[in-house]
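Session log. Operator J.P. requested a structure for one protein chain; no other inputs attached. Running the standard single-chain path with token output.
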Amino acid sequence: MLVGEPSRGSALVALGTMLLDHGDAAGGLTHLERALRVIPEDLAALALAGIAAEEGGRLARATRHLRRFLGLRPGEAPTWHNFGNVLRKSNRRLGAVAAYRRALAGTPAFIETLHNLGVMTLDAASSAEENQAGGSARRHLRRALALAPDHVGIWVTIADEALGAEAFDLAARYLRRTLALRAFWGEGHRRLARVAQRAVRPTEAGACFRRALALDPADAEAIDSLGAVAADRNLAQGLPWFDRAIAIQPDYAEALSNRGLARQEVDLIALALRDLRAAIVLLPGFAPGINNLGNLCTGQRWHTPAVAYYRRALALVPLFAEALSNRGNSLRELGRLVDARKDHRRSLALKPSSQDTLLNLGIVVSDLHEPDYGVLCFDRAETIRRPDPHVGWNRSLSLLLRGDYERGFIDYECRWGRRGIAKPEAVAPAWTGEPLAGRRILLYGEQGIGDALQFARFIPDVVARGGRVVLRTEAPLRRLFGRIPGVEDVVARGERTPAVDLECPLLSVPRILGTRLASLPAPEAYLEVDPVAAAAWTECLAGVPRPRIGICWRGNPIFPGEALRSPGFAAISPLLEMPGVSFVSLVKDPAGDPVERMPVLDVRDRLTDMMETAALMSELDLVVSSDTSVVHLAGALGRPTWVILPYSPDWRWFLDRSDSPWYPSMRLFRQRRVGEWGSVIDEVAAALKARFSPG
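Structure written below.
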């Protein structure tokens, strides 16, 4: 086609315009650009080519055409507006803002430009200019509203601004204004529901989602969201909703991810894994779904793959606060405490009002021997929203770790409110410390065998207050606890409890008694061995030369922190090479450990309950063990006991002591770095040599 055929150029403009009007942006752009080769400075062709290129996603070509137009007619406000839109889509913020301002210079009452400029200013505000930019944005939006008070889009924008500032009531008020203008707008009801969710108003959120669903019964998003509201109370309650949403929209990645979390809650792990993987196949960039997959791995204690998933989510969304904190939790479980603290701090910088992150940070800094810092985190977490028993429980551990038993045992009562920890059904009124005057009181164990052994020291104090004590405990402790003076009866957990007048959890007794560190009852021994059982072990070990050392290298394998708490057989095996010493295994189930190939006597078949273990200990010269029920039994019997502690010890061992105020017969050996057992085992070996080597 030759330049200089204006009639042909006009025909091409008309054809391009027609195609653009019928939704064919690519065809329209082709004909309009052909027209521009004939009539290069035709303003209509340039403006329409810019619009067609923008609609077709050809932003560079749209920029070129609109810039040529504005060079010919610089005062055209609508084209400056269109140019600003193109630059905004191209992520050229400063240019877009300048274009919108040029549009307003020509037409100060240009509503859409005021709206877009307000949005741009909000979106692009950096932390340094946030207040100024926010004020400028509000001015633009107010001007737009003054010109168009019924403009739904502007009300939505200012509602979004309020939501971003966590002004939930204000955001809800603006959204209700939009619904007054468009009562049957489902998205408006969904937006209002999301505000209620952010404000932790689940009932209100549910009502709004139901209104959206009433407008469109096939609204999969509203159905999925109702599932999320139900899941806030109990994840399993969300399952029927998620099933319904996926039935309507099988490729709904968010619903699949939510259903995966709910299925995990009811232990349908294989199905949960399938849902979560399907979600990220559908949306490979769906960072929340990848984070949820990490959470599933964390729930199964698959911490190494969990960290990999969190890392993948953070590669997509580097400022993903929840993924940072979740990764911090898994890193803690892997013993990478410094890295965990770093992640929690970064997460908290992004969400300073996150109670969960403050809780997680408090836990990890206490692990890093900073319980005072931990208490500060827990105190701050408690001010953010309704009291969370997990906060009080973890604060109790930090308080007890630093020796503040007055506050620590008060907070220790929060253990009952934690997820999955239900207080046993009461069989009698609770004892609050009043004189017992001959009344029968049920004291019951509630956690592990080690805790029951440790807190059994308080039973004589209850007897001294006039109590006739009935004990409910784990079956392996029954014979042993039956020999405590003043105990009338011992029943195993699950057996029928005899009639009593009052009841009290064993681990609540020190709070009721007002126990402080200085007043801690720590007799040399407070449990005793059945002489008949002791005699049987004397005979059994008659041929085993002294010194005899009982050794325990691990505890309950399903204990959450067992991998970090106990050294394991390989780590302690150098101790067994010491000549002139007889080692006796105190591990109840050493399956998988090559005990038969090492110089250690395996008597597991005879350790039928804790009385038998106690009787065995009466024939030993020393007990060496990691932090398991074994050390509490040995300490309660007053037997010489050496405890091998991890870097982050349980609260009862404090941080920097080599002795224990709970057990006078104990010596503590502490790990210097997480997961590094070599040096502490060397220290124990040297101490053994000093104590037992001839000469």
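Operator note: The chain has 34 helices and ten strands.
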